[in-house]
Amino acid sequence: MKKKKIWLSIILVVALVISIIGHSNPLKAASPLGKDTLTMITSPDYPPYEFYDTKGGDVYDGLRLRQIVGFDIDIAKTLAEKLGFKLQIMESDFNGLIPALQANRADFVMAGMTPTPERQKNIDFSIIYYEAKDTIVAPKGSNLKQPQDLLGKKVGVQLGTIQEQNAQKIAQKVAGIQLKQLNRVPEVVQEIKSGRIDAAIIEDTVAKGFAQANPDLEFNTIPSEEASGSAIAFPKGSSLVEPFNKVLQQMKDDGTLNKLVAKWFSETNTANSASSTPAKGGLNLDFTRILPDIPFILRGIPLTLLFTLLSVSLGLIWGTILSLLKILGIKPLTWVANAYTSVFRGTPLLLQLALVYYATPQLTGYDISALQAGVLTFTLNSGAYMSETIRGGIQAVDKGQSEAAMSMGVPYWLMMWDVILPQALKNILPALVNETIGLLKDSALVSTIGVVEILRSAQIVGANKYIYFEPLLFAGLIYYVLVMGMTLGASALERRLRQSE
């Protein structure tokens, strides 16, 4: 009995010590935010706010991981340290950030986002942590210095940004302005260089980097009529706004924000982010500018191949099932299979991808990853196309094959598996190879939801170096080599199958 009392006393003392330690260290105690891990979503193609470190990155088990760095990332890490939560970073195109918040895919957004009245109707914002100004970027010597100078000009803006909204306001006051919206700032700048637009409205810190990397461009600051700047965005009614505001204000008061501004927005840092070899006019294809970043682009190949392999394999299985439903002769099943094929062949693949990625968490509560959403969407879409190809291959097999199997008492499903399908797949092999090649190239679409495959990797390098052609041409070369390798492999397989006949 005494031993039990002694052990009970020891347990109580240990529990008391743990409780005291837990209360004395706020970072070890239960998070005051209600979550131990918060997810931040950003668009890492906007240096120096957020961009990929294509030369460095964290190392884990001997592998160099892709790492997003920048002004906003440092602020987010400081917030995580002071508020005691673990930070998880996701990415998306800028115009997908607010939908991601609304779909509860993330807890907050940091992407140099300005709290406009239109946005505040749908999401909440923190206090402004950095003031920025808009600029007019144009070819050198254009003399476009004020909004009035844009009369009758074609002006480019990034879709979903405050610059787009400001450009629309300018267009209401200055007649004849034609706006062209594009997904990324590098695309906007390239439109200027190619002569398809006359100018662009871009934030000053970003415009500075492009002007340094492209001496044939100039930028002029637009006088601001109202206060603007960057703030953190949250889902409507989020409880995170107040604690985040408190820490942001502390960072302003103690000079932490000023130190980060000096770190990321200095002339030296902007110049280092820009291309080391400025443009000289013409195409100026100088691939030495991306040599240090080629390993970063190459790291997108395994993800692209994994995505293609999974989509083709699952699509082939699903397409086979659909094709069998169409030829069974059971009208309800045939109708369902045909209706399914009609829907997925009749709607854009990009629309299907967006719906699966953003709607799944809202409809099911499952936080589907970008890769899972891509594989699922391409499986469902590819299955619809493959079902028609497989159906045609099955119906092309001589009827005598099935009649002979049935006369020998072979069950229908076994006959299809052992006799009909092998012959059908041999006949439709070229069509299946075409579908696989199409999936490999279409895998670039998953870059729109933040999967860093080959194309996305090239776009990231282009954004970091303020260049456009070289990374994309190198990505095109990679796709071409992969497709040629796949084509040669399929030709060898086809010759071998022909020899076995």
Task: Give the SSE layout.
Blueprint: H1 2-24, E1 37-42, E2 45-46, E3 50-52, E4 59-60, E5 63-64, E6 68-69, H2 71-83, E7 86-91, H3 97-102, E8 108-113, H4 117-120, E9 123-125, E10 130-131, E11 134-139, E12 154-158, H5 162-173, E13 178-182, H6 185-194, E14 199-203, H7 204-213, E15 217-221, E16 229-235, H8 241-253, H9 256-265, H10 267-273, H11 294-298, H12 301-327, H13 331-346, H14 349-364, H15 370-396, H16 399-407, H17 412-427, H18 429-442, H19 454-465, H20 469-499
Parallel strand pairs: 1-7, 1-8, 12-13, 12-14
Antiparallel strand pairs: 2-3, 3-6, 4-5, 8-16, 9-16, 10-16, 11-14, 11-15
Helix pairs in contact: 12-13, 12-15, 12-18, 13-15, 14-15, 15-17, 15-18, 16-17, 18-20, 19-20
Write a structural description.
There is one protein chain. Helix content is 56%, strand content 13%. The chain contains 20 helices and 16 strands. The strands form 4 sheets. Strands 1, 7, 8, 9, 10 and 16 form a 6-stranded mixed β-sheet that branches. Strand 4 and strand 5 form a beta hairpin. Residues 1-30, 58-64 and 274-282 have low confidence and may be disordered.
What is shown here, in short?
By secondary structure, the protein is α/β, with parallel strands linked by helices.
Summarize this structure as a short list of keywords or feature phrases.
501 residues, alpha/beta, five-stranded mixed beta sheet, 20 helices, disordered N terminus
Name the overall outline. Answer: elongated
The number of distinct helices, counting runs of at least 4 residues, comes to 20
Write down the overall mean pLDDT: 81
Count of distinct strands: 16
Structural class: alpha/beta
Low-confidence parts, pLDDT < 50 over ≥5 residues? 1-30, 58-64, 274-282
Give the N-terminus to C-terminus distance in angstroms.
Answer: 86 Å
**Helical coverage, percent range:** 55-70%
Give the C-alpha Rg: 28 Å
Q: The biggest beta sheet, please?
A: 6 strands, mixed
Approximate strand percentage: 5-15%
